[in-house]
Fold these 4 entries.
Entry 1:
Amino acid sequence: MRAAVYGLSSIIGLAAFFYPFFLPVLDATRNEGRSGESPLLLSLLIGMCLLAVLLEVQVQAAGAKLIALIGILVSINAILRFVEVAIPGPGGFSPIFFLIVVTGYVYGGGFGFLMGALTLLASALITGGIGPWLPYQMYTAGWVGLAAPLCRPLVRLMRGEGKWPEVAVLAVYGGVCGLLFGLIINLWFWPFAIGPTEQHWQAGLSWLVGVKRYLVFYAATSLFWDLMRLGGNVLLTLAFGLPTLKALRRFRKRFAFSYQAAPVGAE
């Protein structure tokens, strides 16, 4: 059931990102379509997150502790984003992805998805960053946490748990996600954007031409910005990875809390 909730939520998110590319005609001068769909998409995503939390409370012996942990970590991340907005860092650097990655890695993909999605929601309420882009940011941040347990096989192969090889793997993953976050997020508005023809989508384009145009658009508008996020994620993980992983594992052991990931990263 939990796997179905996370899977259905991700399918809805993917459909929301990509359905404009299947429309026969796009009005490139307006963005009302995205603005109109965002409240519904946000409501669906919040509903999915609440359902996931309720399911976890029912199946986990430490349900109250689970909710408390999510609340504490999301609050910490939301405050970090508030600081980021108050004192802007270079380019697209943001401190929030570090905790999303390490919590998803330690506690499982389901926890990571909730951590990413709820962090963006809570921080948007604090910073006033609510707009049609919010559900797309929530989905993308959630996917960062959802996929974090995929690092585990490589760490096991390297016998690096609790050591620097583990931190290095997570640093690389966080850096890649720093780029992918921007690469994916731009898709929410790109089909409706206006500008140079060679950088924008037009109905009827082949996928090859569309991908080429998008990469040109991304390189021209976002690549440098996202490289700052990549570098920030790597540096934060290298600086704080070992103590943070140790603390998260100590919490899990001390409170006998075993979070089973869904649909990826099962313990």
Entry 2:
Amino acid sequence: MTNHVSLNKKSNNLHRSMAWGKLVIAILLCEATGIVSGFIGNASNNSWFSSLKKPLWNPPSSLFAPVWTSLYFLMGISLWLIWKSTSDSKQPAMRLFALQLFFNFWWSILFFRFQSPVFAFVEILFLWLAILGTIFLFSRISKLAAWLLVPYISWVTFASILNFNIWILNR
């Protein structure tokens, strides 16, 4: 009996450490997406962006990095909640999450590297729809996972409006 209890305890510890490992991987995946996209897009110290006309309500550039870092962190936790679930619906939900992360990755590159507010705006609309779909699918598995994406879709909504206005002001 003692060996059986000991094996169960070891199994539970392994399961817990695997869950924490998934959390770390999920957060790092999301954060790395933003870091690599920003690096390729050359978003910081971009003279082209500095020269653009922007609406008066454009936030200071110093705000974007901490906001995105926080959003990627929340996205990682949200992904982890779905990944560790036993739901039969988790694979389609995680695929849609991957799609929205793919769109997220490309926005900075389209906007900053290719200097195309119009293509970036079209792309951010696909991103917004993918986030909305992800929230919907995540909500079927974990309400918390879905709610953790609400600040993200809110910020992307704001970013979409800002992107559109920058495009219009600089046509």
Entry 3:
Amino acid sequence: MNSDLTQQLFDAVAHQVCQGRSLGTTVSLLCSDTRFSELADLHTRVEAAYARLTAGPIGTRARSRPEALALIGDYPHNPAYIRRALEPVLADAGLAMRVIYDATKFGDEALAGARLLIVLRDGMFWPEPGGPPVWWMTEAQETALADFVTTGGGFLALHNATALKRIDDGPCLYREVLGSSYNGHGPADEAFEVSVTDTPHPVTRGVRPYPAVDERHRAILHADDATVLLEARADGETTINGYARLYGSGRVCYLANGHTYDMLACDAMRRLLTNAARWCAGLTDPPV
């Protein structure tokens, strides 16, 4: 019971860190949370978890496998479900995973040694519960991401990563790399069908059309060199649900699904994510 609660507490602190909350705010919120009332030394536990989560990427540097850096979690997307869904995917892909919860620690140093960057989060912090959002990405961080991809790194953008820099379609370096911009989304429980538009592509290999219940994001595609891989259809409306492109010496893939664990972990998405991780990372040999 305590081990489960300890993990739940760690995940709860991680969610606060993803939102840009201070240590004081995090302690105040979680020490008054009745879910954790039976844990001894709760204040100390929260402080220890916060220190670990804000120190930089979590995970041991891999020596035998290429590494993926996952920048995950924000106000509407708890990082715990994202991490749980990505862990088996990256194991299948033959990649080690390091997770970064504190977006202020993202940059050149965090990317050093990585073969792949995965992002499922937006660019907003919510430092005060109920307060206004704050955009966190700096020019240096944007440049670090662009340099990483330009020089051969892979970039797998998921779900609301179109809003990592901004929520309009204005030009910026991040939009240039990703190739698309944010354009809103539907309700979290929208039902739609996903069709595969490019079956020979390595990302969609072995993937068949599948039903989805998800928050459907409607990205605006700006890159004229992108290959549309997936489309979502419902109520007479068709939207781009996934695409791939090259940028510099790197590879970029965007997959729109991912608002819930069930969606990220379903068979079709697990295959897509595994394929996309390997393709973006430039891995052509069978997984180890």
Entry 4:
Amino acid sequence: MNRLCCLLTATVALLGNLPAALAAQKLNMQRQDGTSVKAMSYSPQGACRGIALVSPGAGGNEKGYDYLGDALSSQGYLAVVIGHPESSRSEVRRHSRGKSTSEGLEELITEPEAYQGRYQDIDVYRQWAQARCPASQSLLVGHSMGAITTLMQAGARNHIGMPATELFSAYIALSPQGSGQIFPPNAWSAISRPVLMITGTRDGDLGGATWQTRTEPFQNMSGGCKWLAVIEGATHLNFAGKGISRKVETLTTRTMGAFLEGLKRGDCRYVTPIQGITVQTK
């Protein structure tokens, strides 16, 4: 019997007034190196269409990004939001000792060990999810540091030394990173699988660069079901579910839904324009 599955413990908890179909399940699994990794899973409504793993940004955890978990499960996916131990809030604080938070974050997001841990976290929950939903479609969704992880796995060359895995059928990157300390110029040219990237006009880079740097991966990718969506006024933290109006979260999930429907049809055209968001495709 698979040792990873044997080490799974899970309890069920309803989130607020969500219907039973959107119940979130607490998970806690051990990687092969013995590290405990928490997650929250969101069961699909109806027949399972596929699996969708969500990789949070630095300082995020499995309890955040519930808007993504809810949206993906409502679209038929078994969604899992992963709490990465090597880039947790406590790790952000540790890296920030004696320096500013931004300096600590910059140090953390360029640390190879953090990505090595993330790869292991993703692998253990990919195995768990696929054992419960054997449908062919699989998604890796990431925000910020999670978006970096997502595009590395999709095939982006990087200075960290992380390999492409190409284990998912499609990728979604919220606040993707341009070239710099992590990615060299033209890092994304070899990515062949479908990718949706979403940013906003207030989604500035950690180093102070404008949001336009986040469009670089799309510009560099070859054609073949690649989308770039820009939400007017969206900030970096809006994509982490931090906002009052929830407008950005709604536009994000609607765009994701349109992209996923295109994958289902086998036609990646942007069919129905969504007000408040600009979409380019190729």
